[in-house]
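Figure-free illustration: sequence to structure, shown twice.
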Amino acid sequence: MQPGAWHAHLNRKPLITIPGVQRRTAEVMVAEIGADMSRFPSAAHLSNWAGMCPGNRESAGKRRRGKTRRGNRWLRTALVEAGIAAGRTKRTALGARYRRLRPHLGHGRAVLAVGRQVLEIAYHLLAQATTYRELGTDYFDRFGAERLKRRSLAQLQRLGYQVTLTPLPTAA
């Protein structure tokens, strides 16, 4: 990459559109991973390379929390800071994700999960040369409700029931 090419890439501001990512964080991300995402086959590969994936520890059939592997410490620090900042936002999907995970995982793990999601969003923005589009705070609720509906229908069908769903009329 030519000197200053990453700086020109930042002028398009694809990373700065992500909630919690400011100019300095975007500079660290581009400096550490580069602007060319063809090196990584997927966002999961990038997350693993950066050391942002949760560990897996299983013994005797019990799954326990594992430690994340060591990755690039400058990138990880920037992503944790971005996760903290994104978790503080009010009307964003990343803020909603933090608030949903925090009671179960605690502050540190929730911030790490949001930081990983910031990295995966950055991967897609750089790979597709586009800007971030906010999904809204109710995105995960809508997604979860749809998944619950499909799972419940499948469970009833396995029990031998045929179910037809009709939505309730909404009061105007």
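We now fold a second protein in the same way, so the two outputs can be compared directly.
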Amino acid sequence: MQETASRPYPDKPAKVYLFGTCLIDMFCPQAGIDAVRLLEREGIEVLYPADQTCCGQPAHSSGFPEQTRAVALAQIRLFPESWPIVVPSGSCAGMMREHYPKIFADDPALYAQATGLADRVFELTEFLLHVARVRLEDRGEPLRVALHTSCAARREMGTHVHGRALLSQLTAVELRIHEYEAECCGFGGTFSLKHPVISSAMAGDKVAALKASGAEAFLSADCGCMLSLNHTLQKRGDSFQGQHLASFLWQRTGGAGGQP
């Protein structure tokens, strides 16, 4: 077992579960497919429980504890084996790993189940870096990119650190650090629905900072942020666009033709 300062990491497993997230399922399916391809290329079998839905984060952040518990419990029961659970979204992974045990803290049996699941949850870039221990070979042309990490993923999962480490393996990719990198993009799940004017202003500041970095494109491991920022750019008629990090890594390392 490999261990870092934050948590112990298991040896590379033969099988993993994929928790695809509702946003990837509905809006970014290619990111989910490319996440599977990255894992399978490392010799790992990926299992996808078909009944999975939302992680429960929208209900949790909106103050509906009973609905959150119901959604979370439904997910917990879908992953009975001891295999790691890989999540291509830092905010969803953070919900499952950091908050599931807390919302079942008053029930010893459910708390044990939630804690057991939380210990097996890994955000995709974290898993690739520390468990699969990938070594990426860059096959693309020189490119300048910026990395946007959701504030929840940054705070709870350290996804910005894992993303940077993977990108540093790509010899022709230059990572540009943009101003206000640690600040929220304005999406915030239901925040963008409840406070659209504030959300739009925050998204505008973020896309301006991403472009000012000199990057030719931006990457994100969270579809909610990526979709919100891309929509902001599209409304402005701007061709500058973001891509999910899973798809970018797959394409840069030989998967651009669509074949695993």
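Summary for the second example: The longest helix spans residues 196-212.
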